[in-house]
Amino acid sequence: MATRTFKRILVANRSEIAIRVFRTCTELGIRTLGIFSKEDRTALHRYKADETYALDERLDPIKAYLDIPGIISIAKRNGADAIHPGYGFLSENAAFARACAEAGIVFIGPPPALLDMMGDKTAARRKAQEVGLPVVPGTDEPVSDAGAALEIARKIGYPVIIKASFGGGGRGMRVARTDAELREFFAQAEREATAAFGRGEIFLEKFIESPKHIEVQI
């Protein structure tokens, strides 16, 4: 694989996430491009990039950072070699990775095929089971409504955790210990997932209390 050298990187994120990427780029001698919603016009990350550009002011502060055509347009107009998505927002969005490739811009992250497989948490569960890995009891497809979620929760046993099928960073996640909590939290999780990731699909897993967590970043 050929080594690529970047001169200008656009960071498709905000706040502390974007600032950390800006700092690393600066240390590597790479010029940084930032973006900001109208609500973030005085946010610190706007002033930490070498250049910053406003997102569509007609969009709310979450949808602005999920605006794939708008972000690609800013990157192309201003000569970005690559886009770093940070985490959350578009970082696990295969459509965004494909849009970058179609625009001739490098997406700093996994290829679209891998995002298709692992960005969708229910697809990731299915793939893990396909290769023989043990998984926590839960659903391998999104759950359509709170009624279906109640049946599943009673089958696998409380407590259960409600999770967004797309996205991460803790958004769209709730722990339910009773039927009443599940009814309440299911709708909350759907709304939060839709607002944060543009996708509201929800799935359930058995909530493991006091686990030992060993994580390997690749």
Which whole number gives the mean pLDDT? Answer: 92
What general outline do the C-alpha atoms trace? globular
Task: Report strand order across the widest sheet.
Answer: 3-2-1-4-5
Largest sheet: 5 strands, parallel
How does this model look, in words?
The chain is α/β, with parallel strands linked by helices. It has helices spanning 15-27, 44-48, 68-77, 94-102, 112-118, 121-130, 146-156, 179-197, and strands at residues 8-11, 31-36, 51-54, 82-84, 106-107, 160-164, 174-176, 202-206. β1, α1 and β2 form a beta-alpha-beta unit. The protein is globular, with a radius of gyration of 19 Å.
Question: How are the secondary structure elements laid out?
Answer:
Elements: E1 8-11, H1 15-27, E2 31-36, H2 44-48, E3 51-54, H3 68-77, E4 82-84, H4 94-102, E5 106-107, H5 112-118, H6 121-130, H7 146-156, E6 160-164, E7 174-176, H8 179-197, E8 202-206
Parallel strand pairs: 1-2, 1-4, 2-3, 4-5
Antiparallel strand pairs: 6-7, 6-8
Write a brief structural summary:
The chain is of the alpha/beta class. The chain contains 8 helices and 8 strands.
List its salient traits:
8 strands; globular; 218 residues; 8 helices; five-stranded parallel β-sheet; 39% helix
